Structure formats: structure tokens, C-alpha cells
Amino acid sequence: MIKRNFKDIAIWVNGELADKENNSVKITGVSTDTRTIKEGNLYVPIVGENFNGHDFVETAAANGAAGALWQRNQPNPPSGLPLLFVEDTLLALQDLAEHYLGDLPAKAIGITGSNGKTTTKDMVTSVLSTTYKVQKTEGNYNNHIGLPLTILALEEDTEIAVLEMGMSGRGEIELLSKIAKPEAAIITNIGESHLQDLGSREGISEAKFEITAGLPENGTLVIHGDEPLLTEKVVNTPYKVVTFGSSSPNDYYPVQVEQKSDGTFFTINGESETKFFIPVLGKHNINNALAAIAIGQRFDVPAAAIKKGLKSLKITGMRTELIQGKDGITVINDAYNASPTSMKAAIELLQDLNGYKKKIVVLGDMLELGDNESTFHFETGEGIDTDKISHVFTFGKLGRKIAEGAKVNFPNERVHAYDDKQELISKLKEIAGDGDIVLVKGSRGMKLEEVVNELT
Questions:
Q1: What is the pTM of this model?
Q2: I need a labelling partner for 111 at 20 to 30 A (CA). Which of 41, 59, 173, 207 fits?
Q3: Contact residues for 278 (Cβ-Cβ < 8 A; gap 6+)
Q4: What pLDDT shows up at residue 45?
Q5: Cα gap 56→46, rounded to integer Å
Q6: Which domains, from first to last, does the chain contain?
């Protein structure tokens, strides 16, 4: 993590020391939350719509902070704690991260996309860690506050930083890319998440493509080559473009795929003698693995090491996570988030699995889909294969639209729509039993991990 004195930090953030005698105060690490302050941290008080971190500067000091930033327009700066005055504490945090990363030998890799960002981040990290010292974005620290904090947590000898870049609207990924200045970047795909804010898939594509804002001319951009909204943007670009997808003419594509209960085997073009294995389910995750392979080769990781890295992959929880539950029930926990694209992929995964008595889906609302949200939900239900799925459970107001779509093909007694989660769980426990498998998927706000917990 960052270890610098107050004087150096003042230069990087264009700040002014409250007291010149504090020039030599040593800062070790940065925090924006007084509850997680560690001894020696720099406390950065963020001003939000409903909170003001400046109210807690004295608490930060009591909890061990060595110093704090202070926004000039905030009244009554406290005495007794080394302060560094800045125009805007959030901008100062971002400037500090940009300068710190620029001061390190570490190379950055940026990852964005509508679906699969976190799984791809985990795969890239696992592949590169066979050869380099790598640190990655932890948890959901992928926004305008989280990414700077991730960078400021990098060790001095880190060789590669794998940085997930999320967004809440236009301009955010551009900001993150300019802070990180990645040598390579990945766009996993273009889906429907953020349609409510961006209006169209074209708008989403434009926003995701902002990851190139900090990419140097000799950088590498890895994109989903089956997506025209991406491929049309890379004509005559200065950086090297690498594509992955389902088939030729992509630079990377699978040749053979074999789905097992504990993961997926596959071979790729140009590496037919190497059978890769990823301990996660779903053909859609092969695309994520292809992006990781492309990055591995870009950074000269040997083929055997890439294979080893993918095989030893540990994915972040609630993302196509296969769990052995109670009473002989198997659960696919994919409850972290959902969009029509990822929901369809998860359902297709379940439909393709063999060796189970009943296959059951538990699907919740997909949020932030804009004006066509009802249609997206209805079509999701209508697309479920009645010959391969035994029962459809839905949760939430929009989930009822999934149920309506499912009833186009399913008899009513095999479709169960609920607004009460406990009622859903009770009925699910009646139907699911030994030898059955249950897929649980919905947007983060639906908290469907509560269903998973009841089954496991």
C-alpha cells in the first residue's frame, strides 16, 4: 500500500499543508471509512448527497489516522490532526491514485463489460499470477472511489494490477481509464445492464468503449468479436485489437467444449493439443477464459502456466457457483446480478447439464432495464425449454412477467410466482429433493442468496 510522507502527497494532489511542520508525517494506506481506519492511514473525507466525511475526521484521528485531507470549502477544520487542504477531496483521492500508480513499476490491465467483468478479472489474475506478482480489484471496488482505493492498496513490488471498471453512467469508465492508464484492456461484452440510464445497447457500447481513453497507442484492446457494436469501433484504431468469440474469424475461439459437473473442458484454435479446464460452469465462461488466455499470451505467460492458472481459478462468490446443498440438492448460485443476456446464459447452462432428476430455476427481477423491462422479463420466461426445465419459480414484481412468459409453454402447475421470499422457499423445499439441481439468479437488489442459504 502507499507509504509516502505528507509533503509528497501534497505535491501529487496540489494541496496545501495546514502546518509545514507536518511535512515529514508518514502515511501508510488510505481510507474513506472511519470504521476501517488502520494505524497510520490517511483519511479522505468524501462529501456525498446524504453524508459528509468531514464530520468524522476527529473520529478518524481517534481510530489511528495519521492525517487527513480537508476540502477548502468545509468550515471548522479541527486542530490536533495533520491536515492537507485541497479543492475537492474526491478529485484529490483520484489524483493521488493516478500519481501513485505512475510512480510504481506495475502495469495495469482494465476490464469492463456488461456481464462477466468479475469472473474475467478472476481468470486474468489466476493466469498472470503463475508468472507475476498480481493484485486485483477486491469486492465491488470498481467505481470512481473504489478503483483509486484499489490502486492505493497496491504493494510497491506488485508487477501487474488487474482493475475492474464499472459504471453508473457515461464518463465514469473514461475517468477510471485515465486514472489507471492500462497497458491492456478487455471489454467482455455488451448487454442490457444500464439501459435505464443509457437508453440503448449502442449507448452502452459507447460507455464501455471509454476504457480506451487511457490506453496508450501501443496498448492492447481485447474485445468480444461476435459483437458488431464493438468490432465497428476498432477500425483504424492505433492500438492492437485482439478478438475472442464463438468461431472464426476471431483470434481466439473454442474448437471443442465438454461440460462436466465440476467445470468445463475446452480446446482453442492454434492450441489443439492443449485441453484447458475451468472449474466453473457455462459455455459463456469460455469467452471469459479466452480473454484471459489472450492477456496471458500478451504478457508472455507460457501455455502450460496459462493452463495451470485457469485450472486453479477461484472465482468471486455468487457467480455460477456450484454448491452441494442439503437433502441431496445441488445449487447453482448465480445470485450476484442479472441481465437478460446473463439470465439466458445461466438458463442454457442448466438446460445443458445432465445427470439430475429435476432441473428448477429460481429467477428474480432484473433491474435497470429501462422502458422495455417488462418485455425483457416476458421473453426470458418464454425462452425457457419446457422439456429441459421441470419448474420455474419467480420472485418480485418483474419476476411475475417471467412467469407469464413461461406459461406460454409451461402448464400452470409448473410455474410458481411469488412476492414473498419465505413462501417461495417453502414451496421450493416441497418440490426440490435428492438428485435435483436448482439455479438461483436475479439482480443484486433481490437478495436471492437468501434462497441459496436456505437450500445449503
A1: 0.84
A2: 41
A3: 123, 263, 264, 266, 285, 286, 289, 310, 311, 313
A4: 97
A5: 10
A6: 3-89 (3.40.1390.10), 104-311 (3.40.1190.10), 321-455 (3.90.190.20)
